[in-house]
# Entry
Amino acid sequence: MAEPSTSPTATTARQRYHGWVLLGMLLGFGVGLAMMLADQHAGIDGRTHLGSVGDAGATLFLLAYVGLALIDWQGLVAAIAATHHVITAGTRDRAPWVAVLVSFLVFPYVIGLYPFIGVYRYGRSYVEQRRRYPLERRQRIAELEIQTGIEPLTDGYCVQCGQPLQADAQFCAFCRAPVKPVPRICPTCATVTLPGAVFCPKCGTTLVASGQTPP
# Structure
């Protein structure tokens, strides 16, 4: 029985975030709020009323609010639950004024500030997803190649251990030796020599590879 893969593409599916959803929410909240603020009129009773443009903006804002609540319902529920917990604790401790104060302080966040906090949460997750996407895509392609039996192409053999070299590799997969030989530097006169040179062509000093000791 094959062992389950632990790569990000094989784990439990995460919520996917889309740029058009983020843009739609930003436009809904921003344009809706701007329309409401721009179309306010004082009525006969002295109260401020919204005109037809303001009503359209309120509708747009409400639609964006409902859409965000459906997408990020966990964040909204968590805010409401935290508010309920604090209010219940205040009532239980015989401090009803605490419950009233928290209601005025927290519920405006739930109702008024939540859209902006929710958009920020969604946007941050979207940016993080975009950052991870190239790596996840390469991992998914690699998984498909393994499942279909495709093996990496080889190109020659390592000069140090003799194992096959993977095509376009920079280092040997078996001994980590660089595929492209590195020129050596004479420790006596600092002359750059050809890769694999044994003696310095200028002063005759015996050259050794990195990590070796001279004979």
Q: What stands out?
A: The longest strand covers residues 154-157. Residues 17 and 130 are 9 Å apart (CA to CA). Strands lie at 40-42, 48-50, 154-157, 164-166. Residues 1-13, 211-215 have pLDDT under 50 and may be disordered.
